[in-house]
Amino acid sequence: MARPKKENRKDDILEAGLEVFADKGYYNTTTALIAEKAGISQPYVFKFFKTKEELFVAALDRAYERILQAFEIEAGPKDLVNHMIKVYEELTESNPNEIALQVIGLSVTEDAIRNSTRSGLARIRNHTLEKFQSAGIPNAEDQVTTFLARGILCNISHFINMPELMDDGGR
What we know:
Homeodomain-like_sf; HTH-type_Tx_Regulator; elongated; 171 residues; Tetracycline Repressor, domain 2
């Protein structure tokens, strides 16, 4: 049987990290738990990621990149927001660990993780603002702020399993 390629092992570790971080949080996760989840030895994790923090940042960056890719939508001002909400809801269902990681990333105080969170949110904000402006959405800056605030609230609602935070009363 052929050994998995090195890149596949790195991805396996990243996916295991996503799952364990989402379940246990940043501070309660160890590289030993990630290695166990990936079915490898703990030292093998360090072949790809020097620290737990580096692995978390890589996973968080992946989550933000996936959002940016999902938001590559072309639509007019009447449909853009609804289309973006729809693809984000689909992303939440298909990648719940990444959604959890975003919420966890907001609470971690390590500089590298804060910087990754800042950078990821800034990239999403800027991308969304460009989309809103090019679609001709009035008051694009204010609309983006509201859109992102609702997105973060949606993430928190999903993370703590409290859907009533996002209940719009059937509106």
